[in-house]
Fold:
Amino acid sequence: MAGPCGRADDLPAGVSARLDALARQAEAGDAAAAAALAEAGSDGRDAAARMAALWSEADAGAGLYEVARKLDAAGRLDDASLVLAALAGDPEGRPAGLLGLAVLALRAGRLDAAAALVGPCLRAEDRHPRACSVAGVVELERGNVPAAQGLLAAASRVARAQPAYRVEMQIAQRALLLMHLR
Structure:
């Protein structure tokens, strides 16, 4: 596997193993792993065939997160979810896979799934501002304004320290401003 997001040409043979790893984690009580499997909509039996078909379309050497992003942009959410679940089944790719699945779940209005998926990303040492933003929006949708404000402020703080996350900072700051204008 090349890097934390893996490469598309590395995965077809390992899909079942990654999804099996997620299943074992879910059976052990890992709510994020259970949510990842549910979002993928696959029991694992058809996963390898679906992934092989996806790889025939993928750019050689593309990162799994990039493949999922392109599938999402094309409206192929089931396929994007499967790719992200496979990514989440790899220890190095777990944060990126879970966060991608959380974004998809939030967009679809599945707040409980989004919260379960983003939880481990919030506890991670290298907290991603998008994770704070997703969790903040989940709390806002649930009506927990103080928690939403805290999480969105954290997203802004984390993003401010890292120039690559400028867009995430602007989104969090805009959401905070809109909350104060209500």
Notes: DSSP finds ten helices and no strands in the chain. The chain has two domains: 1-110, 127-182. The longest helix spans residues 145-160. Residues 127-182 form one domain.
